[in-house]
# Entry
Amino acid sequence: MSYNINKLNSNDPTDDSFSALDLASLITVSNPADGEFLAKASTDWDTTTLTAQVQPIYAIDPFSSYNVSLYWYEQNDNYIVYKDKEVVRDTVTYLDASGSYVPVSNSNWFQSLFFSGAAFNGKTVIFEASVAPYSQTTMRAEVQWVNGYTNTYTPIGPPSKLHGRGHADTVYGRFVGTGSDVYISLKFRYLTSSTAWLSGGVKHRAEFIIIRVYD
Amino acid sequence: MSHNKIKVGDSAPNRESEVTVNFGDLSDVTATSPADGQVMQYVSASSSWEAVNAPSAERQYIWAGGKAAAYSDSPALNPSAGQIIYIWDDTPINTIAGATLDQTSGNANTDENNWITDINLPAGKYVFRVQTMFEFSASGYAAYAIRLYNGNALITNNGVVGESRGINYGPSNSTSTGYYEFGSTTRMRLKLIAVSNVDSVANQGNTPSEYGLIYIEKLS
# Structure
């Protein structure tokens, strides 16, 4: 009997009984490229690349419309959103449309999104929204993401202007959680009176909101 | 001769002929002292797998602007096509490794510092979103976009503001957006593409900076 018959996996030993063993002797490693990582595949291990991903924690469906009567916004009102339009909602909750800063009180709509201090402490949250209020006449409006939902608030991004009739624009905001609970709203920081309306119909297909967290 | 001479990888048997092979004993693996959470990455230069820190899942980005500062303190010339648009930010967010924002500095009048002049991005894939606003002397428009410093090529679409955009610049959105892939570090600037009745720099107040935003995401 010779030690040379001791194979390790499919590897024969050398004359001095040394059995070389590499990763490919144990698992399938098909032509790895520089920088690739090792990952479990369905039935074996294989190589893969890794891509950083940021999942949305909140998004509304821009393709739905709904029926609602006309209600006009006023300066300092919050842009309200129909709850049933949401397609993603993780870890954020609502503040219903109610009180002095909404065009109409209705629990089917929300005026602000709530971020708990504990869940978002130290996390960066980026807001992106396309707003499209209905206007029956020439309108001048400025909409801005803010921390707060009353007339006392802190801007968290640049305002966007809406001119004339039938215009939409995109509004961006960013905040970093400090451990305190916050309400984030889309605020009409400026509005010519009785010109921007909450309305029904397909106009709202111009709207979207996407909120992402950068850990 | 003893079977105890048999070695597997770098591991020799003990007196009971037991061979304990560790992951790091494999001939193409370098993982002498891997730390908790490290992953194995292939390095073609050494044809080996090495233990490295897991890549961050954090998306890298630049966020600058949205702050009020008098545009007359910027280096801006009176607005016309081709002029640079300056966004002010004393604490811009830049988490993109290797990216830099060139800003004015060293001026005795500190209000003239911190105006972003150039954006320098390392190789990679990026999504751009840029906004601003201007004051107008009469009904008009301003169109803007990011252009490469070398060659002046456009890398975002036109963002447009103003109440009278005409058939050339309306319908339009204030957000200039784009996607671009760079093979090496590349310098770029936010520039005016076309203007109509944009007021003088002296009459802009805080508007271009307060409404200004540079938001760039690095995808990979």
User: Anything to note?
Assistant: The helical segments of chain A are 23-26, 117-120. The radius of gyration of chain A is 28 Å. Chain A touches chain B through 46 residues (CB under 8 Å).
